[in-house]
Amino acid sequence: MAASRTASAARTRHREAAEFTPAEFAGRVERARRLMTEQRLDGLMVTSEANLEYLSGFTTQFAWNSPTRPWYFVLPREGEAAAVIPEIGAGNWRATSWCRDIATWPSPTPENEGLDLLAGRIARIPRRFGRFGVELGAESRLGMPVADLLRLRELIQPVETADCIPVLRALRFVKSPAEIARIRHICRIASDAFDRLPRLARIGDSEKEICRKFAADLLLRGADKVPYTSIGTGKGGYSSIIMGPTGRRLARGDILLIDTGARYAGYFCDFDRNVAYGDPGDAAKRIHDLLWRATEAGIRAAVPGNTAAQVFHAQAKVLEDAGIALGNVGRFGHGLGKAMTEHPSNKPIDRTVIEPGAVLTIEPSAMYGDGKILVHEENLVVTEDGPKLLSRRAPREMPVVRV
Amino acid sequence: MAASRTASAARTRHREAAEFTPAEFAGRVERARRLMTEQRLDGLMVTSEANLEYLSGFTTQFAWNSPTRPWYFVLPREGEAAAVIPEIGAGNWRATSWCRDIATWPSPTPENEGLDLLAGRIARIPRRFGRFGVELGAESRLGMPVADLLRLRELIQPVETADCIPVLRALRFVKSPAEIARIRHICRIASDAFDRLPRLARIGDSEKEICRKFAADLLLRGADKVPYTSIGTGKGGYSSIIMGPTGRRLARGDILLIDTGARYAGYFCDFDRNVAYGDPGDAAKRIHDLLWRATEAGIRAAVPGNTAAQVFHAQAKVLEDAGIALGNVGRFGHGLGKAMTEHPSNKPIDRTVIEPGAVLTIEPSAMYGDGKILVHEENLVVTEDGPKLLSRRAPREMPVVRV
After folding, report:
1. Where are the beta strands (DSSP E) in B289-328?
2. Searching chain B, which residue's CA lies closest to the CA of residue A112?
3. Cβ of residue B177 closer than 8 Å to a chain A Cβ
4. What CATH number is given to the structural domain containing A277?
């Protein structure tokens, strides 16, 4: 125990972010209702972790790790919000959510997982548009079986179901200061862990061992969860940036990439770092420098009024001017918040206008050599005064561990 | 570094489970096809982590942490299986899946996330029943936006969509020896971590700190991921068994519960342990003993031919005979495997017949005192020779840390 306490004591502790205030949720609900009017919805229901937690404040690990029981949160355009949830979760709901109207059923009851209760709540919503929003659209994942949603659709007729994702996307795109504080917190933790990475990952360690040590380090520094630690290793570079860890052992001459999505209080960081074990070679050094400059250009372009496409083009231009093939990722960064990747996508077809409060990743990648890829990534928040980095900026030269 | 290496060296290392063989997947596909004939399906498509990984072998952290891009795996009743996946994942697919027929598109392309490619593959499937299976049913979560599934349903007409969950549920219910080896591996790791818990969690630690230390310990012992660490603390007992960690600090006289769902190579353990910091009091001691005996009864009942309901009743009888109120969990254990909770549920309405190869949790809970609940949980595999424990059996008496 003495040993691990010593190791732990060496880790910088950042002050924990504050709890969300009642005003935070009142603001979200007010904005949601304005957007519901725009989208002609009398109400909406959310079932997925990010959307349900965002609107209700309900915090749980259980609901999202056990697909047996669905959890529903209903927000009408006018009138009281309601939780329709399994009996097992009532206490947890009361302890974490602002919403006091809770209906429960003794789940699991696969023949009817609260659908009658839910339909009853929806039927009470004042009707103006005859449309009720559910999670259907782009980048969404429904938190209940589809067959049950289709049954619900019948049960609530003549009210039509419509997509509520445009409402949630607009809401979640612009982060509040309290949300940004949480993302900043996890970015600091990950920045500290990345600073230690060259000493943590050692020649002879397998990729799996490196990922486990790195995730443990993030936890001991204050991350709540580390769902994502992709890794690439290889002589002079790696060939995939989204690979799970393999049994391959880190060797002299390797470049190591780790990309992490770690969570704190319901919010993600998402960035990566490269480390060379011995000289990475001229090709990788050149690409690293170009990507660093592309990242600078992307950061500078992340200002209110620019589009996600412009944030892409600013990065791409640096690489194209140097005659470099862009990576196969399909975009150069994306929104970040309660999901590790969210709206928008920094790519030519995405005309989303960047607003103050948007949190973005800047993530250029380039191909080189024989099927190798290199990637950089930083996290920032857009403000009236321009972009503010949330991750600690990577050094222009790739860190080299002497081996 | 010396410090943390010392701590790490003190952790028992269990030999890693073997890779799945080609025969493992061939067996799954053969069983799937037999079940598809029974369910009158010409083919099926899976999009969720557990089902896609189960059938295709594709291993990724990326796909399930980034909801931007969907991933589809199509298995016809006759003919070749096909992956329809984002371009970014082609290399990863080739490195991990047995399936060599890969179609890609340059995702993210929200206007059409591979739906035309997917419909094209489905159109080629030989038709006998005119029905194509998608993930609709109980305990499922679709891995693509529902709006896209509804569009696909139109695109593949006159082929009807039907539920493929009965096929996947039957397949995944009976585990192969290689699957059981993975669950055993993570159960050993968690058993070791729980053995250390009384020294790891200290008076004055917050619940959050305890969960982070415990998850880090699991990782350093060889867990790949620790998605779930619920915790309960309180004087003489706790009041919820599914709470996320709070800022509450462990105090003298507390009972501490941790329940963990940790993962290794795509498989979960799911069990818990109780520890008292000082004398837990007579009420908690009595309930703990009854739950230990209820668990014994549940383990003994987990034999081929018994139903999940009988596994419930065996546990419930011990508590009811003592006049104890059952917990509010809704069941006394469940299936376990690629999901932390899966079919069946040990509860009176579930008549699923237990078969050799089924992996179950035995999880009785009881209410006592002023709104307190106590829970036990063990993991086992059902065999022709009776139940075999996968978790290291909890001691009959609650471990007491002298404080």
Report:
1. 325-326
2. B138
3. no
4. 3.90.230.10
